Amino acid sequence: MSAYVVEDETIDRILSYLQANASYVEGVSGLGNADSNTLTAFGRKLLYLNTQAVNQRYSTDNECYDASYNFKQVAVGAIQASKSLACLIYQCSEGDVPDTELFKLLEQVEGEINGRIVRALPEWDQGAVWG
Prior knowledge:
Blueprint: H1 8-21, H2 36-58, H3 78-91, H4 101-119, H5 122-126
Helix pairs in contact: 1-3, 3-4
């Protein structure tokens, strides 16, 4: 598998969605009232994690790609946020990065977003039986 550092826009989509929906996503509730500086700092942690994975994948020691990141609010829906998050998780799935607490949090958040998407589908209420 190849690995790369995701674009800033990927992080913006993830954080914008989490900020708007923090009340239902366990582990990120503090992002709901977060200011731009707090979201920038969290985004830089995500990019640092991503850089660590890329460095471990290619046995390199590149500087962290996070230094220039500044959060920008974007409009984003659940499906796009889920896909952006899945991309980040995939790009971070190298070396010992999947063992970190932040990576585990990302996987948990992905599951919660995907669960919300599924429960919003008409088939959830109309086509599937309970039990």
